[in-house]
Amino acid sequence: MIGGRRAGRGALFIVAMLFAISGALRLGSGVGAALARADDPPETADAALEQGQCETPSALAEALTQRESRVAVQEAALQDRLAALALADAAITDRMAKLKAMEDELKATLALADGAAEADIERLTAVYQAMKPKDAAALFEAMAPEFAAGFLGRMSAESAAAILSGMSSEAAYSVSVIVAGRNSGAPTE
Fold it and tell me: Which residues, other chains included, contact 110 with Cβ-Cβ below 8 Å and sequence gap of 6+?
């Protein structure tokens, strides 16, 4: 039995030696790569940044200065744009005020013209009403029926009746139809 034990120890020793040699070889291959890297020059700041290392204070200050100048340029451009918008807004406000004044002036002119036209029609209606019915009837018969109906509609019922009675039956009928149908298209509700 003694010989069997020794043979087992020898095999165990050989396996342990193989493990030790394998570990030494692995350590030796890593040492060569580390020595090769030690001969290289130190990394630049950009490479250091790529690996997550911090910048040097001077590089950081320079980067901040560049960023500050870019922000200042952008801020100046924004201020110029705001000034241009303020000028455009002032010009638009001025134009709107001028347009409003012109619109008010035009409304006043139109109201004056409408008032003058209405006054002229009222005065002419009063003249026709004051005429002798026979003379007014001859004049109304010569007018277009729509025109005559407008004046007769403004007159008192007595004056309009006196003028219509002096007109020919055909002319009186056409004027009466126009006066009667003038408001037929008006809404009832």
Answer: none
